[in-house]
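Recall the central idea of this unit: under ordinary conditions, the amino acid sequence of a chain determines the structure it adopts. In this exercise we apply that idea directly, starting from the sequence alone.
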Amino acid sequence: MKSFVFPQFQIIRDEAKCGQCRGCERQCAFGTHIYDPVSDRLISDDNKCVGCQRCAIFCPRDAIVIRPTPSFYRPNASWSREKLEDVKKQAETGGVILTGCGNDKPFRIYWDHMVLNASQVTNPSIDPLREPMELRTFLGAKPNLMDFKVKNEEVEIATQLSPNLMVETPIVFSAMSFGAISYNAFLSLATAASKLGTYFNTGEGGLPREMREKFGKHAIVQVASGRFGIDAEYLNCAAAVEIKVGQGAKPGIGGHLPGEKVSVSVSATRMIPVGTDAISPAPHHDIYSIEDLSMLIHAIKEATNYEKPVSVKIAAVHNFAAIAAGIVHAGADIIAIDGLRGGTGAAPKVIRDNVGIPIELAISSLDRRLRQDGIRNRCSIIAAGGIRCSADVIKAIALGADAAYIGSAALIAMGCNLCQKCYTGKCNWGICTQDPRLAGRLNVDIASQRLVNLISAWSHEIQEMLGGMGINALESLRGNRDHLRGVGLYEWELDVLGIKGAGE
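Accordingly, the structure predicted from this sequence is:
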């Protein structure tokens, strides 16, 4: 069937520069560039290009340029090019349109409409280069009151404390499973987390056995609806356990790892046959109420000897704050809330782009609800879904989060260009693939160092912003929305965010 869809990208090759080295042919897993021995030249097929830019970046003579195709349809305010082509694709295939990465629609990005406070004369700023600045954060339940004992002039805490995760900076690597991403990418996240004193989330794909002893103490292991790769050792080797109820990119539906990505090592880790699809059901089939969730939370705590905090990850949707309050009452130590712009390896495009709410609105609503119920100290909040820079992190904390999950930013640091073809398993950057030839392109030492550099840079910037506000500890900013002001927002948006307009 002849496709009626224009190529998404156009490949422009400068024949005068091109040395016919065929490097572009080797770099592209989608078969975009093909050498024609008859004409002794490279031919490029625009229809196969996904815009990952790998060939252009690695061309030794800079002979290739990839740009959006100049072809266009008659302008129509109701029928954008994307809507037209989605209809054409489904008319040709009869299938659901899949996509990867996060929501790319022009919803308001509230981070860019909030500005931070700065110190003046009466509250002088703090120089983070010369004075201590505390970024260390504890994630988990906290007691209402603490009793102390003094013995031999030494003070001891008499109150029994709940297990907490101690992170040196309020940034944690979000859930990305081995299977959805390559072993090298997964190992890079684990290596960086151990060097930084933070944590990486295994996602729903389990934790390879050879990584458990070395990296388990920096892992948050996930219990998802498919229960892939879960055993007693898996739960006990980790620093914390997270029950995934939902995620921002696809609230209300399950997951699907295509059989092509279930290699021998993925099979062993997930405990499923090689080459079979790993399909996670939409609900946990043992959770149909808060009481059911409470039973699972306490079963996990019992299985881990009450030594690890248990997190519950939910998507930011309508009425989520009331649901989250019930989850805290059910015994969760951490609430991970994932917003509209959360990334994914594979999701129906219509779900990713039309379900959920922005994380900025969710953080403030959740923090206020838990405070109103008097249970804010009983859990920590980790915000996820659209965290792009250190300013987003510090604004999330001011809105009420304890820490932030980052996923897409971490992948970009390793080389991802958000071509949104993660579900194909043909990632040219070696990140979202199980093809040994492609996965080998990602050097673990280099990728992990790039992640360390990114988080270190963000941490320095957070210290600078805190110092500029006259704050020397992250704890003093948490939920302090007086340090934020809105610019260009409607009254209802300011009300939901719990902040004032700029100038007030």
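The chain has a mean pLDDT of 95.
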